[in-house]
Amino acid sequence: MSEERLQKILAQAGLGSRRSCEEIILAGRVTVDGRVVTELGAKADAASSDIRVDGQPLAGQRLRYVILHKPAGYLSGRDPRAGYPSGLDLVSVSERLYAVGRLDQDSAGLLLLTNDGELTQRLLHPRYEHPKTYLVQVQGVPNPRKIRRWQHGVMLDDGPTAPAEVELLRRGGERAWLGRGFAEERKRDAKAPAEPQPRTSWLKITLREGRKRQLRRMTALLGHPALRVIRIGLGPLVLGNLAPGKWRDLTSAEVQALRDLVAQSEEGQRPDERQRRPNSGMPAAGQRAGAQPTGERTTKTPGPSTIAIDGPSASGKSTVGGRLAQELGYLYFDTGVMYRAITWIALERGVPIANEAAVTALAQQVKLDILPPASADGQRPHPDGRDVTVLADGQDITWQIRRPEVERAVSPVSAYPGVRAALTLQQRRIGQAGRVVMVGRDIGTVVLPRADLKIYLDASVRERARRRCLERRARGEDAELEEVLAEMKRRDEIDSSRECAPLSAAADAIVVDTSDLTVEQVVTRVQGLVERWAGKVR
Ligand code: DC
Hints:
Blueprint: E1 4-5, H1 6-12, H2 18-26, E2 30-32, E3 35-36, E4 43-44, E5 51-53, E6 56-57, E7 65-70, E8 98-99, E9 108-114, H3 117-124, E10 132-139, H4 144-152, E11 155-156, E12 159-160, E13 165-168, H5 180-191, E14 200-207, H6 214-221, E15 226-234, E16 237-238, E17 247-249, H7 252-268, H8 271-274, E18 306-310, H9 317-328, E19 331-334, H10 336-348, H11 356-365, E20 368-371, E21 389-392, E22 395-396, H12 404-414, H13 417-431, E23 436-440, H14 443-447, E24 453-458, H15 461-474, H16 481-497, E25 510-513, H17 519-537
Helix pairs in contact: 1-2, 9-17, 10-12, 11-13, 12-16, 15-16
This protein binds 2'-deoxycytidine-5'-monophosphate.
2'-deoxycytidine-5'-monophosphate binds at residues 313, 335-336, 339-340, 410-411, 414, 440-443, 491, 495.
């Protein structure tokens, strides 16, 4: 394959003289593999690149779309240094094809190959997460609780996974999905001398994100390592009966379905569409965490549906978040309450705070309910002035979680990755239902990284200590400014230096310094941010 100047290629394809082809290039009418090229010196390989003028492929260039059943042990691309064969070599066509996305070398199944650079670019754009379906054979049989954790997302070292569809297949259920090649393999296995095999099971998993070795990492984390991973679906395409190592051209209906998929995703991402789309189709607010709205979640305001407010202790998150939620008619959810609740339960049950495994087990087992502050007879507000009711396994611990001993122990508890994973899962379920103001330390970065509006409230540590002191004194507790200040500095240090989900502003968060502002002023400023967001989107 050789590269030539673009104007020469265009001229050879009958688009006019080289001079007039230069003008076509300069006018921005030419794309190479989906990218507009306007430099005259640019070169391309006509045999392997998708060159178009005004969106039309050059005459004589055939766009080809192939599905390959890549066997395990093959690479999706070419890497002579890797020492593995390439799946591309299994397909003998005259066009130079490449794979759309990757499929791990250990995984088998559907790989889309094409020379249509434009479609590839659009299919791979990270903004559009097209579903990919896999059959995964795992060790053992995961119980329903694990399946649910999988469905809602698990915490990997590069962040939590998005919700996934996970279905445990009935024994033999995988056969309905796997074609001839698999049947032959089973026959061969049946002839082999029988050895006692450990129990395995098959799951059908649909993901809408593709992180490196994601399925293998997820399954290992939940104690059911993947033995085989076979991709059976990619957007509208299905592997069907294709045996491993075999390929076929896509039908024109399949090519059209891919084009429609891309067009729909682009349509769906238009900002004015975002308001109308249901917020990701997630289940409604949490069963375990039992969060309740402060008002009805029925506002008509065309505002951001998920609002993340992060920041250090006493920066004003709860007061401002609560007020904002009330005004919008959204759910207000203070995630710090959950870390505090687990800490109190550990202290109360005599579980040493330093015992990470035991504290983590508590976070996984204790049923937390965060409820509105209604009094026993349903009247609001609660006579004791609480702004939420916190139940742990049914026990009301609303005030206990504010005690100084909890304050001292909560930072180490919230630094345990297992505790974070368990609580993050519940928080995401609540947040992803939408119409929520969620406050904490890692909402914009980890819990809801795609929140519509992210706000980071900050204030000087002395000012925050002063506010905390006033709060405590208002509750009739003793509080010395210097002591509270020292405690706050210690917590800031732990919260922002811990390895797992440290306190930090998301790159796309709007930082508001509240040091010299009254609560009213902060609320007004935050309302302004909500309105500005709505104005931009409208
Ligand atoms: O906001 P707060 O002071 O009630 O939070 C209590 C503790 O929980 C605090 O030390 C940090 C931790 N936390 C966290 O690590 N992540 C969150 N999303 C919320 C709170």
